[in-house]
Write a structure and sequence with these properties.
94 residues, 3 helices, 35% helix
């Protein structure tokens, strides 16, 4: 709650929340804690989940955040870009 309140006091509008240093807590459990803390601040903060597409994130993330990553990092390489686009075909329904 302290972090969310600090972000709100700073006037933050967007929070990209990484899944780094997660202490082994699954993202489906960890992200809702920050979502709830952000909501308690009363400030509208866009909540972006960054967990690199692990754990089938599109199947649960819409209940938790405003946007989410579906793959690892993109690189300035056409093959990498098209590969990522192809990986996202299965998430079109979400």
């Amino acid at each position: 709650q302290q972090d969310a309140s600090t972000f709100a006091s700073w006037g933050v509008d967007y929070l990209k929340y990484d899944n780094c240093n997660d202490d082994g807590i699954p993202p489906e459990e960890r992200y809702p804690v920050m979502r709830d803390a952000l909501l308690k601040t009363g400030r509208a903060i866009y909540f972006s989940l960054c967990e690199w597409g692990q754990d089938d994130v599109p199947t649960w993330a819409s209940k938790v955040g405003n946007s989410w990553r579906t793959t690892g990092d993109i690189k300035p390489d056409w093959n990498k870009i098209t590969s990522i686009a192809d990986k996202n075909d299965k998430w079109a329904a979400y």
